[in-house]
Every structure is written in C-alpha cells, then in structure tokens.
Amino acid sequence: MTIPTTHRSLAAQVSAFVDGSGDPVECVEAFLETAHGLAASDHGFAHIEADKALARARMLVDRRDHSMQPFRPGRLFGLLVPVKDLSDVAGIPSAYGAVYRRCFPRNNDRTAAAIVAADAVVCGKTQTSEMGMSAYTEPVGMPAVDNPLWPGHTPGGSSGGAAAAVARHLVSMAHGSDGGGSLRVPAAATGTVGFKPAHDTTDATPTAQGFITATVADAAYAAGIALADTDTSAGHPPGKVKPFKPVTVGVTTTPIHGDGTVSQVMIDAVGEVADHLARLGHTIVDAHRPYGQETFAAFGDVLASKCSTITGPSSPLVAWLTRKGLDMTADHRARAAQTFMDVAATVENRWTFDILLSPTLACDPPAIGHFSALAPPDDFAEQTRWTPWATLFNMTGRAAISIPWLTGTRPEPVGIHLGAVHASTETLLRLARQVHP
C-alpha cells in the first residue's frame, strides 16, 4: 500500500482512481499510517480526519463502481486534499491557528465546498498562524510546524502546515490561502510550488485561495487551468514543454518592500534563472521599484483594518494589528484602501515587461521562534524584510508563483518568484514550467 506521491502527476493519480487501477481507500489508509507515525510538528496537521476520510473514499469508490447514474468524476476525484485551518469543513474542528479559537463548524465554507464538490477526499486541516496573520507557522497552544527541508527552522506561513505536508510527501496537494505571500513563502521555504491565482482586489481584498504542490503542472491542474503546452507526438518525450512566444521578463533582486538585504545565494539563483530564460529566447530587462515605501504602509494599514473585527484573546502580533486597526479613523482606512487598489494601475503603467522575476525570500528560513520573539512592530518589519516581493501581487491581484531552483552549490533549492504583470496566468505558468516542471 503506497500513497501516490509527487512522482505521479495529479492528473495521472485521478486517472488511476477513475479507471480503477488506483484505490483511494488504500491511499487514505497509507496516509493515516504514515501521518500517525510522525510528530504533530512534522506532519503539519492541526487535525487528521481518519473516519470521515475513509468513509468518503469508500463512497467515491462505490459511486464509481455501482452507481446507476452515468459516472461523472470530479476534477479531483479520489485525491487526498487537506484544507488549511482558516477554512471551515463541516464536522472537522477549526482552530484558526489558536487553540482557544477551536470550534466545530456545521457547514463547509465556500472553499471547502468547492474542494468537496470536485470529489476530493478531505483528510484533515493543516496548521496555520493565528488568523493567518504571519509569514511563519507557530499556532498558539499547538506545536510549531517544523521545516522538512531545514529542520528546526520555520516552514514559512501562513500555509506552513500545507507546505510541510506536501514536502514530506504525505499528500500531493494541499489547500492554502495567500493574503501576502502565504502560499508562496512556505513553498519557497520548503522546496515546493506555491501558486497564487489571480484574484479580485475589490474593497482592497488581498487574499486568494490556492494550493501547494510539488510541480508547476500539478499547480495548474489543482487550480483547474489547462496548459496547452506539452508535446506528446512521436519523437518527443511525454510531457515535454513546447516552445511558446517569447516574453519580456523584468528582473530584480532589490527588495520592493522593507529595508532588508538579500543573501548572495538568492541573488545568484535569480541570475541563473534569468540566464536560463535568455537562452530559451526570452528578453531579460532590469526592473526597478514601481513605487515608494508608503504604498506598502497602506498594505499594512489594510491588514490592520481587517483585523479590527477580531475579538477575544489573541497572540501579541494579532492583538497589535487589531489595536492598530481599531485606532484608525474611517478616513485613514479609506485612503489606505484606495492606495492599495491603485497599485495595479501604477505597476502596469510603470512596468512594460510581461513577468517579474525575483527571489521569493531574502534569505533562508530562520529558526523557529525568530520572528515571534520580537516585539510585534519589529516582528512585522522583520517578516517584511524576509518576504519583500510577494505582497505586490496580492495588491495587484495578478497571478504569481514560487518555484524551487537548484543552484548546484548545495542540496537545498532556492525559491524563485514569478509574477504576472502584463502576461496571462497561462503564460505565467508556461514560463514557470520552463524553469521547473
């Protein structure tokens, strides 16, 4: 009994489940056996759902084999998909990253409902930071999630549990959300792929729902995006990425947000990727900051404003953001929201290239407890220094992805960030596949 891992694509796994050559029940059983042999800090789950997952897998198999109706499998048929512990799944406890917030939802929220409707098997809830408000995953009253790639170090956040579960091959995909890099940051920290789809930023909304996977092809499949870019004709290896119209790639290793420095390994990795894309025929140009630091200050104000509705006990960071939000005047909130929503037009006007290439992180993941040991304002500033590129795409609403790149100088990959400026989401993903499959 083995879990289908990232050695098989999501599409191949679903195909096997549909034609009967794969068994979702066996996969759930193997997942449970493996996960229960790990510490909570290692598997990254806030809650592992055994009984409901097994019952769900059996139901899917029964529907496949014995339904009187035409069998129409969903896109995620049989796949094990944990849901981030900021989304509600009926009958599974939600804690939202803090033990004192634990409750038992009676209904699926919109995100969980879509995953279930696609015929996935929800096998539990993955850990997050309290209310998803930090780029590290140290849930209050529960074990901090360890990094499979850098033991003893943060896996990033706030989708750190999802990233750990995929990096340890417990599952092939895991749901997460991204309000400031919360999919892409943990992907970069754990050597996985984090894709933030394009999203609507109306009312200064920074958050998109997405998935962490092992490959770009799986990220596209998980998001339901068809990539017509593989050549399976005679004489070509299956899945070989076909050439497509060259694009212009803007490159920067200078922080767009914050006042930090960037480690040399990150700079070197971006240079290698830029050279690789140039050899494939793409045009490489320098990218400069499109705006000043006051724009990121508006993002922080929007975040704090959204925290103003949080009630009850909170961690120091969340309490600080909540107080900051409550202290804002209505006019201050409105100005911050407008500045946030103006970023898309500013970036599109000042950047004429198609896609931005940068590191995802300014340095390798720090030790667990590094950020949370700081006073809240310093904690927030230090997180910004660590993740100075991702948030721009939460403000523009355009798609962005973090992919691993091996430099050849060490075993741990570097997270490479690609964000759509004028390119379509499909073009972004096709370019990403030229860097990582």
TrEMBL record:
Its EC number is 3.5.1.4. Residues 26-298, 340-429 form the Amidase domain. GO terms for molecular function: amidase activity. Pfam families: Amidase. It catalyses: a monocarboxylic acid amide + H2O = a monocarboxylate + NH4(+). Belongs to the amidase family. This is amidase.
